[in-house]
Amino acid sequence: IALVPFRNIGPQQEDSFLAEGMHEEIDAMLSMAPNLMVKDGSRFKPQANDAGAIGKALQVEAIVTGSVRQAAGQLRVIVKLVDTRTEANLWTKTFDKKEGDVFAIQREIAQSVAEGLSIELDAGYETRLAKRQPDNLEAYNLYLKGRALWNTRTKEKMTAAIADFELALAKDPGFALAHVGIADCHSMLAHYGHSPSIIAYPKAKKELQAALKLNSGISEAHSSLGWVYYDYDLDWENGKRAFEEALRINPSNPEANRWYSQLLIANYDPKALEQIDTALTLNPTSPINKIVQVRILNAFGKLDDALKAAEKVNESDPAYFLSPYAKIEVLTLQNKYDEALQVADAAAIRFGNHPIYITAKGMLFGLAGKHDEARTIIQNLQQISSERPSSKHYFSMIYFAIGEHDKALKLLEESIVEKQFSIFLFSPRLYFTEFRDNERFKKIYNNLNVPIQRQP
What we know:
Elements: E1 2-3, E2 7-8, H1 18-31, E3 39-40, H2 51-58, E4 62-71, E5 74-83, E6 89-98, H3 102-116, H4 125-131, H5 137-150, H6 155-171, H7 176-191, H8 197-214, H9 219-233, H10 236-249, H11 254-266, H12 271-282, H13 287-299, H14 303-316, H15 323-333, H16 337-350, H17 355-367, H18 371-385, H19 392-401, H20 405-417, H21 428-431, H22 439-448
Parallel strand pairs: 1-3, 1-4, 2-4
Antiparallel strand pairs: 4-5, 5-6
Helix pairs in contact: 1-3, 5-6, 5-7, 6-7, 7-8, 7-9, 8-9, 9-10, 9-11, 10-11, 11-12, 11-13, 12-13, 13-14, 13-15, 14-15, 15-16, 16-17, 17-18, 17-19, 19-20
């Protein structure tokens, strides 16, 4: 099935997240039902009445849509379950309750949809639904606001999101998902270069441990912990276990599917392609999903397919700051350095000289034999580093490209020790294949317990 976001038909408050929350929470609840794949129908909100078109586009058998109205402390939610093949209403239900009963309504809707689809629910399903929800409506709205800010992946908005999640916890200390929200902000602040990993990731892990202590049955907590194991600890086994537990609880968790695919590609596991395909099936418009798909196709040498996928990333969300990165990487691996440099230069200007694009420029200058220009980029990156963290890993990539291999290897080793290394972005084993026989280079990857190249 697909969930189309519920329409908010009153009041039209800018800070009202209740209708959006209905969509997010019911999606999560239904995803916990057995034998049910729940796809994101967010982009079809304006076409909510065209069940046939949505069914064809998303390849789903039914859609859930509805409306939310708040007035004078009362809440009316009208929900429809529609067969996409016949466009007939399987059922329509109206829920009239007090505003504070929103959580009970969400549970009832999820159960009604599952029952309407003739899915057998086990005895513990209702308990699992209730345990993931807070007791306080204000805390819930703060959580939804925080998630909307987190999704932007900008430093300012993710920092603001932490404040919303913390306020949600102040209003409801037992709200485990708010701890997950704080953790995800710290993780992504580090991953996107806005905060030192060695400071941000331990904070994230502490919040996730608090969340799991409150409720170990939340898929999001396990997937977020899996991300910390993967991106910070480089602990593939514990990461794998965490992602698999997240997907056991909720097979339709898009972050779990995407993040797990990234862990799998670190080991050149072919299942990475299946995992990212699932993430794209669940949320086909996500630019982040598309970027990960490009990265995985690159790792398996499918450069023509990767270039086609990279073109779609920018179409999906040109404002997302990593959108140009996908095309830069494919063009670089195709040895089209001048073309890649044009994209990197435009991205650096557009996104405020972000270290990722400055690094890409330096590496491309080096690969093109323009070593003086590459060294100027190193100086620029050093200046930027005084204002925002720039990984030694990034510097190592430019030194590799200009042929200063000892310095590059030293910086790569230091970046791993100092927790600045990202196995996903700028992977030397992908760009500099001539080093696969270098003993020092091989030792680095042996110590990471990942293969230095994919198997034929």
